[in-house]
Amino acid sequence: xxxxxxxxxxxxxxxxxxxxxxxxxxxxxxxxxxxxxxxxxxxxxxxxxxxxxxxxxxxxxxxxxxxx
Length: 68
Known about the structure:
Layout: H1 3-6, E1 19-24, E2 31-37, H2 39-48, E3 52-55, E4 60-63
Antiparallel strand pairs: 1-2, 3-4
């Protein structure tokens, strides 16, 4: 088990293996976006300290800022 997996034991993924990820401004709490993460994108986020999501439309990992 990786260090990233140890940090996410209580996350409940849905039947498609996804969990909603709400992105907020750290200063005022404004919601900036809703995206989805699977286990791989969450693990990459925890390891890289950069945001990775799962694109439901493209069915691939999405590195925020790289393609949008």
